[in-house]
Input
Amino acid sequence: MYTRILVPLENTRTDEAIVAHVRALAKHCGASIVLMHVADGFAARNMSALELRESEEIRKDRAYLDDVAAKLSADGFAVEAVLASGDPANEITAAALREGCDLIAMGTHGHRGMKDLIYGSVANEVRHQSFVPVLLVRERPSGGTG
Output
């Protein structure tokens, strides 16, 4: 069914839900996994133009991606890790095409109303931009069974 799954991560609790789901899906399909994080702060967006050094935040992002990739790889999955910078929705949809992915699997926070207006929804933007199918998995509420 799926052969290559793109999994955008943001180094939050939401990642746990999507990684757990993708583990099962990738095992069932025999799919490889492409983990991705999009750094979208000022330094990340302007690193090349301003000839900036890699920030501490980007080093931490890279270490986090490498850690998740190593755990999946140790469990027998074919995994790659991609660190990008810029607008998350644009970078995710472009990476899905560039990396030859046939599914984008994303975790969501489940914001509603005012929080979506304030924070926006990368998942919503990706779902509207992408020609690759998008699977959304919502994180469970903390302390509850959901």
In short: The two ends are 29 Å apart (CA to CA). Helices lie at 14-29, 42-46, 56-74, 88-98, 114-119, 122-129. Residues 111 and 118 are 10 Å apart (CA to CA).
